[in-house]
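Two folds, back to back.
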Amino acid sequence: MKSNFPKNFFWGGATAANQIEGAYNKDGRGLSIQEFLPKGSHGEVSDKVLDSNLKLNAIDFYHRWKEDIDLFKEMGFTALRMSISWSRIFPNGDDEKPNEKGLEFYDKVFSYLKELNIEPIVTLSHYETPYNLAKKYNGFASRKTIDFFMKYVQTVFERYKDKVKYWLTFNEINAILFSPLMAAGVLENRNDINLRFQAVHNTLLASAKVVKLAKEKYKDFKIGCMSIAIPIYTLTAHPDDNIAKMKKDWQNFFFFDVQARGSYPGYIKRYFKENNIDIKMEQGDEEILKNTVDFITFSYYLSTVADNNNNNLFNGFKPLINPTLKQTEWGWNVDPQGLRIILNTLWERYQKPLMIVENGFGAKDQLIEKDGIQTVEDDYRINYMKDHLIQANEAIADGVNLIGYTSWGPIDLVSAGTAQMSKRYGFIYVDLDDQGNGTLNRYKKASFNWYKKVIASNGKSLFEDENK
């Protein structure tokens, strides 16, 4: 087998401000919803900021950004997916003026990335709604939040127009359906299905307005969407199971359909009608939604199965065990071939450039000393990522226009789901435990040099063993 990765392929890693920056109350930053989720998206919402919340300080990228970016450059990164902390720019979300110190921080980061020829791929909203907007307006359940979001977008577009070309609107936008606070700042009445879909509509509208703004004023920009992508298999060959799969696929495609095709698909209109869901769509909304993204990005960690006993549409993303596959420690089906399948499916459906902006292996790594150096022997991560990249290579051979791969996360960071450090994804180990103890020193894992070799060879090293 040969490497099919194109010459200009983006190789890199992906992070989120709330999981790496820390400095939650430094230089004028306001509070985000993350400060009230001390146990992550799977835990209860707190009514105050707790010292036990690891995201308050995270891995201190805010002060160590240059050191970390140097390590990314050493690996050979040509791209870094990162997010801007909205509350670092507008501390309350509805402020009249932006926070200059927050803007200056990203000025430094983007300038340094440009100096090192690392392309920033910037997520505008990565689970980081300012808390004040959640408390005062119930986040994107209110159309007012669209206006505050657009003011923030206009501010960062204008400020970084010469430093950032690739922008993603909302991270894992389809997570609104099962985690509305995390994904859309919806604090009150989160279990109200009608309210959830109103937040969905307002968020999709905000995303389309970002595209519209870029097309009108920043013509060099490329705007992408980002969703969780989960290929679905039928448990049996029974037609009922295939109907269940079709419905689950709609859960995958709904957000892509609107953002890449520009309108609400028929199946969602039927779902609204049969479930008495009545979203408020104002005059002109349908026209705005026609502003479609330039490229499509997604996270890929697992596949799932569908059967007639689990065929409710939009009932969450809890994966069902596939008896033909191995599972991770957290019960996720490990399925490299699923990546090839979803890449082909998305390409055939939308015919827009694709980018894998999250993929990786979470594990409880052990720091050891080897040849006088602190490291982690993470062959399990290397094998996982190698298997997935080989399938991405297959998809490119199939004709898929895949333009980049940014692993999650290139450096250990705080988990979004559980707010722990012990579920580690990085090529770089960070000395920090779940209780917040540690030096924050950085150590290269075995996967660091492996990924470095993959990038340097543009994927050819993935097939070295086969060619011997």
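---
second:
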Amino acid sequence: MKRFIPICALTVTMALPASAEEEGNKSLMEQGAELFFEGLRQEMEPALDELLGLAEQFGPAMQSFIAEMGPALAELADEIEDWSAYETPEILPNGDIIIRKKPPQDPEIQPEIPEAPPEGETEI
């Protein structure tokens, strides 16, 4: 998709000088670009209509959710200074949601390496 937009822009800019030379008549490049964009519009129209329908369906529910939960979420955001200090939320089977704090990452503390068992003994 990132390459699509520059290609379209290049097509349109290439068609503009050609149409100026023909004084009113459309060049093949300009006609091709128009046909391409018309076909693209026709192909995208059902998806855009469906997206508009979803927005109309969920819009009122989202506005209600934001109106009710907005102040509570703002208070929570004020209390939490660093979101990266917490694990991702976990939903328990009973419906409770747990958000655990990550263990501190202190670079001076080295993890303990267990000692090797003395030679001749095998730990089972």
